[in-house]
Specification:
This protein has 176 residues and is of the alpha+beta class. It is built from five helices and seven strands, in the order αααβββαββββα. The chain has helices at residues 2-19, 26-35, 56-63, 100-109, 160-174, and strands at residues 70-74, 77-81, 89-95, 115-119, 122-129, 133-140, 143-150. Strands 1-2-3-7-6-5-4 form a seven-stranded antiparallel sheet, sandwiched between helices. Strand 2 and strand 3 (89-95) form a beta hairpin. Helix 3 packs antiparallel against helix 5. The longest helix has 18 residues, at 2-19.
């Protein structure tokens, strides 16, 4: 049995090595070079600070709910939720080197057709679902920020697109 395993391993290794051999065919070399070229690094964008440089109190005031505790925060995002993950919430995300078009297209795929907007001179998109949910993405070169506001099944206490826009304007005005 051990001899068979050794033979299979040797044959497998030989096949692997023969597949890695060189070729003088220039078409093969150009294809390999094209697929192994390094990706263009993202140009450095502005710094937005924790939670987009927006305070918990500013989020609570804009959202107009009696309580909206922060659930998590890190260097690229924050989430505030009332009543757990299925309840009303606000979230902020900072995407480095990621195309905003993919996020806008995703919004359209889930029933929130993106509208082109401008936030303090920066292009972006807005996607909404009635008076219950709104998201705003704002482009900064190779980066973008994203605010999402949802009242879920709770009656909205403020227009979610106004809340998202006000928070996005705060973040844009405080970018460094």
């Amino acid at each position: 049995m051990r001899t068979k395993l050794t033979a299979v391993a040797a044959i497998s290794l030989a096949l692997l090595m023969s597949g890695c051999g060189g070729s003088d065919d220039s078409a093969d070399n150009s294809d390999a070079a094209a697929t192994s070229a390094p990706a263009k690094p993202a140009a450095p964008g502005p710094f937005f600070g924790e939670c987009g440089s927006v305070t918990d109190q500013e989020v609570l005031a804009a959202f107009a709910m009696p309580a909206l505790p922060v659930v998590w925060r890190n260097s690229v995002g924050c989430v505030w939720e009332a009543s757990g993950p299925q309840g009303p919430s606000v979230s902020f995300s900072w995407y480095r080197g990621s195309p905003i078009g993919r996020e806008a297209a995703g919004s359209g795929l889930i029933g929130r057709p993106p509208e082109t907007i401008d936030v303090k001179g920066h292009p972006g998109f807005k996607g909404s679902a009635g008076n219950q949910l709104c998201e705003i993405g704002v482009q900064f070169g190779d980066d973008f920020i994203h605010w999402s506001v949802t009242y879920a099944d709770v009656p909205a206490t403020a227009d979610p697109c106004k809340v998202a826009n006000d928070l996005a304007e705060l973040t844009v005005s405080r970018a460094k």
